[in-house]
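Support request, priority: normal
Reporter: lab tech (M.K.)
Component: structure prediction queue

Hi team, I submitted a job for Cytochrome c oxidase assembly protein COX19 from Coilia grayii yesterday, and the status page still shows it as pending. I've pasted the exact input below so you can check whether something in the sequence is tripping the parser. The sequence length should be 94 residues. Please let me know if I need to resubmit or if it's stuck on your end.
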Amino acid sequence: MSTAMNFGTKSFRPRPPDKGAFPLDHFGECKTFKEKFMRCLRDNSFDNSKCRLQSKDYLECRMDKQLMAKEPLEKLGFKDLMDQPGSEKTESKP
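Reply from support: The job had stalled in the queue. We restarted it manually and it finished. Here are the results:
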């Protein structure tokens, strides 16, 4: 019985994850939306269920600015928030 390990026989090929990894917002294009979402989380003891509208707006900004792949919002779990009043499409400076 051989106890030697042969690391060269199996080749590992990394591949990017299907979801969850996307470019950083180096130019701060969605910074306002991110800050609103983070403020909502802090104000609600990090209960993300209370910040779904802010999360949706942030993800829409990221998709609009090509910082993540376009996905139907229904697939991202926001079917109940579609076309809801108060949803922001344009960035407004605080």
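Residues 31-80 form one domain. The chain has a mean pLDDT of 79. Let us know if anything else looks off. Ticket resolved.
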